[in-house]
Design goal:
The protein is of the alpha+beta class. Helices cover 26% and strands 25% of the residues. The protein has 3 domains: 20-108, Immunoglobulin-like (Sandwich), CATH 2.60.40; 119-180 and 508-596, Sandwich (Jelly Rolls); 186-439, no CATH class. The protein has a 7-stranded mixed β-sheet with strand order 4-3-6-7-1-2-5, with no helix packed on it. A hairpin with a 7-residue loop joins β12 (231-237) and β13 (245-255). 50% of the residues are buried.
Length: 601
């Protein structure tokens, strides 16, 4: 086992997988004490310290027949340390042993006050009598401590109280008062409310129901519809109301190597010359290449090898305080074509389609036609194409049991915009990123108080949270990470498999990066966003609000899979201690990080 790369949860051999919760690894002095749940088929266990960031084993594996082991951490820093336990068996005497199970866990700082390292994570099991202690024998003058509570897999509304000694109260931050600044443009106000939470929830409900029905009664087989024609009709959901579809005459306005663009025939006069040539070039050169490389191939349920992009005013001028840029509907891939005159059947066009709003509606919501062609609409295609690819890879190429979790699907689609060169890294891009980049630092935040995995359709809290999570690991894991998520088993387990580490540990790295990314006093360079493709947004990534940790103490209430952050003032120099007490209803994971300097607030 020594010297080979660490595999992820989903081993190529296809053996059964133990969840990460079956492994408990914690510091005990300079050693790592590991305990795990045994399995009946195992004859021996191979235990290995791993570098989670480099995805490499450290040192020699420890082989034992018991359910515990003690290994030296060596020179590996705690912020990179993980543990892998493999269960091995031999089917026939003399045969080479076979791995039948693997579990990957984090290495916690333990229940004896931690290690005083620059970054350390404490697990819920490190709490004793409902209390956790992190001790620092000698903080340098000016050092500060950040306490990040991560309620990964925890109870909704879990509470903690935190106290500190040996630290000054933090000085009031300039950003703690209401921030004044230029009002956002009408375009950005409109963009911020692209898809209200209730509308997004209705869309998710319809998509989930559509997939459940298709899985129950059978997914419609692919057909050979023939080459695209100049004029045809499509069923379009008015205002995203899938119970109110209308059959529309559409006209082909552009055909590219991989797509055909159709416009509602009533809207043809709305588009200036060159509009679709601009969109088509951006689609072929940036959108299609980025999505296919990162997420996999799209479907071809109608056998013509083309993606259809259909633009119509029927998507609506306004929608519950916002407006709808576009959508992808599961029905088109899963159900047979509805040939009724009123689209009163399945409503499916049985084609690979992305729907966009009309440019006239974009103008009513503050965008110019040029902005729509050059950024807004291509970014939306990138976003929706990921959804189409995701469904294809999960449920048409392979067999699925249900929809992908929304936080994963939407996070990947937001990343698709960015990888294609739109959205977050453009001040004229879609929605949240555009607003963020046009306001002064700190004016648009709001992730704290949200759950990473429980989707509520909040433009900043949910979209920004899941997007930044996936982008952080895509930067660090490389181009294959997103595709591994799409090709995985789905849900949190699929993300863990692609990461090669449990979600609580991944959340800890991500949350730390949100707090200290690109700060000179950060505990490690690994807690920073990377890559010019993320610029300029990553340089202003400040959406993790924090509250001051005072000598009198502080408290926080946590969402399930949510985060709360408390930051101390400077150390006087000498010993310091953090104490965290849970409310008795389940303790969270706690990260304590040392840093120097100020943080934006």
């Amino acid at each position: 086992m020594s010297g080979r790369a660490v595999e992820t949860f989903a081993s190529p051999s296809g053996f059964a997988i133990d969840r990460a919760s079956s492994v408990r690894a914690a510091m005990d002095g300079s050693q790592v004490r590991v305990d795990w749940k045994g399995i009946q088929a195992a004859r021996a266990y191979h235990v290995q310290i791993v570098d989670l960031d480099a995805n490499e084993p450290i040192g020699e594996p420890f082989v034992t027949t018991s359910n515990s082991a003690t290994l030296p951490l060596g020179t590996l820093s705690l912020d990179r340390a993980g543990i892998v336990v493999e269960s091995w068996t031999s089917l026939v005497p003399g045969d080479a042993p076979l791995a039948v199970s693997r579990a990957v866990g984090l290495v916690s700082a333990g229940s004896s006050g931690g290690t005083a390292a620059a970054w350390q994570i404490f697990a819920p099991e490190d709490f004793s009598g409902g209390e956790l202690r992190a001790s620092f024998p000698a903080l340098a003058p000016g050092e500060r401590l950040a306490v990040l509570a991560l309620n990964a897999g925890g109870r909704e509304g879990a509470g903690i109280s935190v106290s500190a000694s040996g630290l000054f109260d933090p000085a009031p931050e300039p950003g703690s008062a209401p921030i004044s600044g230029p009002a956002p443009s009408a375009a950005l106000v409109a963009a911020h409310h692209v898809l209200p939470a209730d509308v997004h929830a209705a869309l998710r409900e319809h998509q989930d129901e559509s997939l459940r029905e298709a899985l129950s009664f059978g997914i419609a087989p692919a057909t050979l519809a023939g080459p695209p024609v100049a004029q045809t009709t499509f069923c379009i959901a008015r205002g995203l109301d899938f119970d109110n579809r209308v059959r529309k005459n559409v006209t082909m306005v552009l055909a590219t190597a991989h797509a055909v663009f159709y416009v509602d025939s009533e809207d043809l006069a709305h588009y200036p010359a060159g509009f679709f040539e601009t969109m088509g070039s951006l689609f072929e050169d940036r959108v299609y290449q980025a999505d296919r490389l990162s997420f996999g191939s799209e479907s071809d349920v109608d056998g013509n090898g083309k993606l259809f992009v259909v633009l119509s005013h029927e998507l609506g001028q306004h929608l519950n305080g916002g407006w709808l840029l576009g959508y992808f509907g599961n029905d088109d891939l899963l159900r047979a074509r509805d040939d009724s005159s009123d689209c009163g059947g399945s409503g499916s066009n049985h084609a690979d389609i992305i729907y966009l709003n009309d440019v006239a509606n974009a103008e009513l919501n503050g965008y110019t036609a040029e902005q729509a062609a050059q950024n807004l609409f291509p970014a939306t295609i990138a976003h929706e194409l990921q959804h189409l690819i995701n469904l294809n890879q999960r449920c048409l190429v392979r067999t699925c049991s249900g929809s992908e979790a929304t936080w994963i699907n939407e996070g990947l689609s937001k990343m698709a915009e960015d990888l294609a060169g739109f959205g977050w890294n453009s001040s004229e891009g879609r929605s949240e990123g555009a607003m963020y980049l046009t306001r002064s630092t700190g004016q648009i935040r709001g992730y704290t108080g949200r759950s990473l995995t429980r989707w509520e359709g909040d433009p900043i809290g949910n979209y920004q949270g899941s997007h930044s999570f996936f982008r952080y690991f895509a930067d660090r894991r490389g181009a294959t990470f997103a595709r591994a998520v799409v090709n995985g088993s789905g849900g949190t387990a699929g993300v863990e498999s692609a990461l090669g580490e449990p979600l609580p540990r991944a959340m800890a790295d991500w949350a730390t990066a949100l707090l200290v990314s690109n700060e000179p006093g950060a505990p490690s360079p690994r807690f920073s966003y990377l890559g010019s493709a993320w610029s300029p947004f990553h340089e202003r990534l400040r959406h993790l609000d924090w509250q001051p940790l005072l000598a009198a103490g502080a408290s926080a209430t946590l969402r399930a899979d949510g985060i709360a952050v408390l930051v101390s003032g400077s150390a006087a120099g000498g010993p310091a201690e953090i104490r965290v007490r849970s409310d008795g209803q389940g303790a969270p994971y706690i990260v304590v990080a040392r840093f120097a300097g100020d943080l934006p607030q």
